[in-house]
Amino acid sequence: MALVASTALVLPAVTAFVAPSALSNLHNSLLTSPSINNNNNNNNNNNNHAARYVSTNLLPPLEMSKEKETTWDRITGPKLFKTVTNWQGIHSVPLVPLRIMTGLLMIHHGSEGGIGPANFNTPQFDGFIEYIITPYFGFLPGPPEVWSAIHDYIEFYGGICFALGFLTRPAALSLLSTMVGAVYFHLSAVGAQGFPLGHVESYSYDFEEPMLYALIFLMFWFNGAGPLSVDSVIYGAISEEEPEEQDE
Prior knowledge:
mainly alpha; 10 helices
């Protein structure tokens, strides 16, 4: 910088005695000298660093304005076709009434002939043996009364565990076995009833109800009890795993 200042003072005096062409060459050599170029480069670098600091640290990031998604957008937009891959948070809420009501219905199914399971020597319990166990499950070893009682115990106590979400996977697997037996019984007794397009006499769709139950128990056997269950409390107390991230 001192060199430039001194040159600026000397040039007017020299111009009177030096040829214009020589002055032009001197001016060009000063502009292209390494010291002046280095100073200019340093100034440019400092300016670039300062601009980068301001843009990254002082100025807030620019955000594109986005309209808030409405319920109608969720129903008709792209999320209409989205599959939830992680059943946690709000996505697990429907599992609670499904599990509880299914368990309560199984308790009702397991109460043959009275309050509680395996009511021996009652018309309902004996009728289950006579019309279902003996003709359709006679291949099973042992007395039919034992299998009828096992059926009742599984559905009654398994239904209690299932509704509470306690030992849900073993309960679901046990209940699944009884529903598979029920599907087999109905298909053996009345067939597929024209499934899926035929008309059913008396509107009694026999095998479809246990089929749906079986699919519900299969799902809970794979996925577990879900929220608001005894299993979730026990797992939270003994598990050392990190909680999984929730999907939208």
